C-alpha cells in the first residue's frame, strides 16, 4: 500500500493553486513520499481530488486509474470529462459500463459519457486520438441503450464505386410458397359519381373514381416474396448532429440494418463539410449487418453541412454499381441547411427553419444535383437513358431546410418526412423501410379508355404521378411505378357524358374500360388485369336515390380539395398573410363537414378535418409557422401528392387504429400493413430497451463514498 500511495503522489505531482511556471521543477512542491497517517491520508487525498485540474503537465499525461502514460501517439484513446479530468478511454469506459457516471477523482456527476459498452485496448483499433463523447440529458441516460463500439475506421474510398458485393445466385426453391401456389394480382375498382343520369341530360364534368390495390404479402413472407432493394443512406453528421441526435440516428440506422434481408444491399454515406462513403454496397447477411453496424457506430459529428456533395456521392454508389437489385432508393437525413451551396447569405440569416425567397420553389442548388435524382437536369439526354432513384428525405428537428428537403424528394419521386422530435427518428425510418421492403408491383400503368361514342376524357388530377390523355380524349394513362404490398392509389377521371340515344331504347351508358399492367416482383413477368366496365343507368327520370353522389367519389373530391386548400394556405403564409391562410382553412373545413361522406362518418373525412385543424394551429403566428408549420405542411403535401405515408411532426407516437385514424395529428391515411407492422416493431424494441435500462441495477452505488 505504501508503494502504491507513493506512486500516486509522484504521478499527480501535487501543487498549491499558485504554482510556478510549467518549466519549473515538477517536484519542487511535491509532498513527502513517506506514507501518511490515516487522518492525514484522507485529508491529503481530498486536497488531491480538488486540485487535480491544476496539476503539472506531467500529471495531465498520467491516467489516474491505471497510472499509465497518456502521452499522445501511444495508440490510446483519451477521454476528457466536463470536469476537465482525463483518463484512458479503456479505463474509464470499463467503469461507465457498470453504471458509474461519477468522476473517480472529484465525484462530479457527468452528463457526457463514453458511448461504449466495452472497449478494446488494441492499438490498431484505438488510433483515433481523442475520443468524442455525446452530451445527453438525464432522461436519455435511462432510455437510450449503449451502442456497440466500432472496431475499425472507414477504408479509403476507391476512385470508382464498382466494388458492390455480387448479388446472390438464383437457386430453384423446391418448396412452393403460398404466393406461387395461389398467386394474387392487383385489384381494380371504379365508382361513378352518380349511378344514374337522365337519358335526355348530358354532363360536361362527370367524375369516375378509379383505383388499384396491390396484392398483399403472405403472413409468413420470406425475403424472396418481394423485390430486394439497394438502399443508400445519406446522413448528415455536421457539428449540429453531435450528442443525442447522433446517438438516436445511429440506433435508427442499426434498426434498418437489422431488418434488411440477405438479398438486400446497403451502403452508408455521410456528409458534413464534405462527403464520404463509410460503407460500400454490401449484402445484409449476418456478417454484412455486423460490419455495417460497426461502420455506423464509428461515425463522429463535426463540420458544416454540404447536402449536395452527400447526394452526389450517394448517387454515385447506385450509378457505378456492377449489379442491380430491382429496387433502388436513397434515404437522406439532415438537421440543417446546406452551408456550401445556394443562397448562403439567406441561410446565414435563417438560423431556424425561416422563410426564404425559394420557400415554395425549392433551393437554388437543385440544378447542381445529378440528373438521376433530378430529371429536369437531363438536358441533351434521352428521356430513358438514366434511371431515376427515389430520394426519401427526412428533416430532423426544428432547424432543417424543409423547402430544400421537400424539393429534393419531390423532384426524385420520393417523400419528405418531418421529424419534429428527435426521439421519433427510428419510427420514421421504420415507416419508410416498411414500405420499401414490401414492393410487390413495379412499372405499374393504369389505363382508362372511353367505352361509348361521345364519352370523352377531359382531365385526370393525378398528383405527382405523370398522366397523359391521348386519341382526342379516348384514352388516359397514369404511370404509377412501384406499389407496396396492400397499397392503394385512387384517381378521379373527369368525363363528358352525352345524352342517351332514347330512340334506340338505350337504358345504360358504358363510360370507361379500365386495365392495368405491371411487373410481378417474384416472377419478373408482366401481368395484365382487366377491370369491369363502368356503366351508369339512363332512365327518363332518375329516382332521388340515384342522384346522391357516391361516397367513394365524394371522399376523393374532399381529399383533393383539402390538399389544394393547404397548398394555397401555405402560399399565403409564405407571403406573410397568415390571416388569409387561416380563413381559407376554416372555410374548407366547413365545406368538408357539410359533405355527404363526412356526414356519413367517413374515416378519411374525419382525418382531413383533423389535418386542417392542425395546419391552422401551426399558422397561428409567424414564429410557429417558421418553426414547425412549414415543415408540417410540406410533409403533408408530399404525402397527398404521392398518396404515400410520411412522418409529420410527432407521427408514429401512436399506431393507426382501424379506419386509418389516430388521436395523433401526425398520422396519415396512406399507411400500409407493412408500414404499421414495422412501426410496431420499432416501438416495441424501444419499450424493451427502456425496460432493460430501468431494471438494470445501478452499480455506482457500490462505489465507496467520496473522501471527506
From TrEMBL:
Q: Quick one: where's region Disordered?
A: 1-44, 342-364, 645-669, 681-708
Q: Where is the VWFA domain?
A: 230-440
- Record key words, sorted: Metal-binding, Zinc, Zinc-finger
InterPro entries cross-referenced by the UniProt entry: CLCR, Vwaint_dom, VWF_A, vWFA_dom_sf, Znf_RING, Znf_RING/FYVE/PHD
Query: Which Pfam families is this protein grouped with?
Result: VWA (PF00092), Vwaint (PF14624), zf-RING_11 (PF17123)
Where is the sequence biased in composition, kind Polar residues?
645-667
Q: Where is the composition biased (Low complexity)?
A: 30-44
Cross-referenced Gene3D superfamilies, in alphabetical order? von Willebrand factor, type A domain (3.40.50.410), Zinc/RING finger domain, C3HC4 (zinc finger) (3.30.40.10)
Q: Where is the RING-type domain?
A: 63-107
So which domain of life are we looking at?
Answer: Eukaryota
Q: What is this protein called?
A: E3 ubiquitin-protein ligase WAV3-like
Species source reads Solanum pennellii (Tomato)
Output the lineage of the source organism.
Eukaryota, Viridiplantae, Streptophyta, Embryophyta, Tracheophyta
Amino acid at each position: 500500500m505504501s508503494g502504491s500511495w507513493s506512486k500516486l503522489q509522484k504521478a499527480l505531482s501535487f501543487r498549491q493553486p499558485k504554482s510556478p511556471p510549467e518549466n519549473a521543477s515538477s517536484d519542487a512542491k511535491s509532498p513527502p513520499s513517506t506514507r501518511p497517517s490515516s487522518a492525514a491520508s484522507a485529508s491529503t487525498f481530498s486536497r488531491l481530488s480538488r486540485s487535480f485540474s491544476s496539476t503539472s503537465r506531467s500529471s495531465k499525461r498520467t491516467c489516474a486509474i491505471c497510472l499509465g502514460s497518456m502521452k499522445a501517439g501511444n495508440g490510446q484513446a483519451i477521454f476528457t470529462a466536463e470536469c476537465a479530468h482525463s483518463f484512458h478511454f479503456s479505463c474509464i469506459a470499463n467503469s461507465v459500463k457498470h453504471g458509474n457516471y461519477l468522476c473517480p477523482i472529484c465525484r462530479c456527476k457527468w452528463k457526457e459519457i463514453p458511448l461504449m459498452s466495452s472497449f478494446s485496448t488494441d492499438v490498431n483499433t484505438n488510433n483515433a486520438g481523442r475520443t468524442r463523447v455525446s452530451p445527453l440529458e438525464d432522461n436519455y441516460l435511462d432510455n437510450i441503450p449503449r451502442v456497440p463500439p466500432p472496431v475499425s475506421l472507414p477504408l479509403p474510398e476507391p476512385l470508382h464505386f464498382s466494388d458492390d458485393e455480387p448479388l446472390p445466385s438464383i437457386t430453384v426453391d423446391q418448396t412452393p410458397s403460398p404466393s406461387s401456389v395461389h398467386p394474387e394480382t392487383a385489384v381494380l375498382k371504379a365508382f361513378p359519381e352518380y349511378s344514374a343520369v337522365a337519358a335526355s341530360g348530358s354532363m360536361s364534368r362527370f367524375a369516375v373514381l378509379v383505383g388499384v390495390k396491390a396484392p398483399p404479402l403472405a403472413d409468413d413472407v420470406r425475403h424472396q416474396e418481394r423485390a430486394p432493394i439497394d438502399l443508400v443512406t445519406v446522413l448528415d453528421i455536421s457539428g449540429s448532429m453531435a450528442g443525442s441526435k447522433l446517438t438516436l440516428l445511429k440506433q435508427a440506422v442499426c434498426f434498418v440494418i437489422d431488418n434488411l434481408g440477405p438479398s438486400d444491399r446497403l451502403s452508408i454515406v455521410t456528409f458534413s463539410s464534405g462527403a464520404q462513403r463509410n460503407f460500400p454496397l454490401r449484402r445484409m447477411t449476418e456478417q454484412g449487418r455486423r460490419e455495417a453496424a460497426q461502420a455506423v457506430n464509428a461515425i463522429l459529428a463535426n463540420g458544416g453541412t454540404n447536402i449536395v456533395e452527400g447526394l452526389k456521392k450517394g448517387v454515385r454508389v447506385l450509378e457505378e454499381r456492377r449489379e442491380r437489385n430491382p429496387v433502388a432508393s436513397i434515404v437522406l437525413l439532415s438537421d440543417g441547411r446546406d452551408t456550401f451551396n445556394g443562397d448562403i447569405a439567406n441561410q446565414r440569416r435563417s438560423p431556424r427553419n425561416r422563410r426564404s425567397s425559394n420557400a415554395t420553389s425549392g433551393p437554388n442548388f437543385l440544378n447542381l444535383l445529378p440528373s438521376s435524382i433530378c430529371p429536369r437536369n437531363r438536358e441533351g439526354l434521352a428521356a430513358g437513358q438514366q434511371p431515376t432513384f427515389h430520394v426519401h428525405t427526412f428533416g430532423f428537428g426544428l432547424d432543417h431546410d424543409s423547402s430544400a428537403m421537400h424539393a429534393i424528394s419531390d423532384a426524385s419521386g420520393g417523400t419528405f418526412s418531418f421529424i419534429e422530435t428527435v426521439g421519433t427518428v427510428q419510427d420514421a425510418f421504420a415507416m419508410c423501410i416498411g414500405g420499401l421492403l414490401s414492393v410487390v408491383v413495379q412499372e405499374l400503368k393504369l389505363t382508362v379508355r372511353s367505352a361509348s361514342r361521345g364519352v370523352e376524357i377531359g382531365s385526370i388530377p393525378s398528383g405527382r404521378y405523370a398522366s397523359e390523355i391521348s386519341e382526342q380524349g379516348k384514352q388516359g394513362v397514369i404511370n404509377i411505378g412501384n406499389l407496396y404490398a396492400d397499397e392503394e392509389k385512387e384517381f378521379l377521371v373527369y368525363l363528358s357524358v352525352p345524352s342517351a340515344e332514347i330512340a334506340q331504347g338505350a337504358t345504360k351508358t358504358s363510360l370507361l374500360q379500365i386495365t392495368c399492367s405491371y411487373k410481378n416482383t417474384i416472377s419478373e413477368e408482366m401481368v395484365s388485369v382487366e377491370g369491369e366496365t363502368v356503366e351508369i343507368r339512363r332512365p327518363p327520370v332518375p329516382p332521388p336515390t340515384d342522384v346522391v353522389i357516391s361516397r367513394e367519389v365524394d371522399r376523393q373530391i374532399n381529399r383533393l380539395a383539402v390538399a389544394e386548400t393547404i397548398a394555397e394556405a401555405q402560399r399565403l403564409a409564405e407571403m406573410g398573410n397568415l390571416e388569409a391562410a387561416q380563413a381559407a382553412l376554416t372555410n374548407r373545413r366547413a365545406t368538408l363537414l357539410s359533405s355527404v361522406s363526412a356526414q356519413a362518418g367517413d374515416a378519411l373525412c374525419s382525418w382531413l378535418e383533423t389535418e386542417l385543424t392542425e395546419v391552422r394551429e401551426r399558422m397561428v403566428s409567424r414564429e410557429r409557422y417558421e418553426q414547425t408549420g412549414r415543415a408540417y405542411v410540406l410533409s403533408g403535401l408530399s404525402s397527398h401528392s404521392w398518396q404515400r405515408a410520411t412522418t409529420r411532426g410527432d407521427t408514429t407516437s401512436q399506431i393507426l387504429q382501424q379506419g386509418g385514424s389516430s388521436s395523433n395529428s401526425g398520422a396519415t391515411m396512406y399507411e400500409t400493413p407493412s408500414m404499421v407492422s414495422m412501426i410496431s416493431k420499432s416501438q416495441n424494441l424501444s419499450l424493451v430497451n427502456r425496460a432493460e435500462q430501468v431494471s438494470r441495477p445501478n452499480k455506482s452505488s457500490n462505489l465507496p463514498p467520496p473522501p471527506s
